Amino acid sequence: MNTNRRSFIKKTLGASALMAVGSSTVSMASTKSDKGASSNGVVVGKSPKKEVLYKQTAEWEAFYKASY
Hints:
The chain has three helices and no strands. By secondary structure, the protein is mostly helical. The mean pLDDT is 76. The chain has a domain at 1-29. InterPro entries: TAT_signal (IPR006311), TAT_signal_bac_arc (IPR019546). Keywords: Molybdenum, Signal. Residues 1-29 form the signal peptide. This is Tat pathway signal protein.
C-alpha cells in the first residue's frame, strides 16, 4: 500500500513539475515583443496629439493650497 502511495506521489509531482515548466515557458514566450526593450513597457503610438497631464484651473489651485 505504501508503494502505491509513493508511486502516485512521484507521478503527481513529476506531472506538476512538467506543467509548471511548460506554463512558464508559454507565459515568457507570450510576453516577449520586439518593442519591449526600447519602450520600457510603455505603449508607443503614432498619435499627433500632445498628452496633457495637468491643466491649471481654480479647483487645482485650491487643492494645492489646501495640501501644503
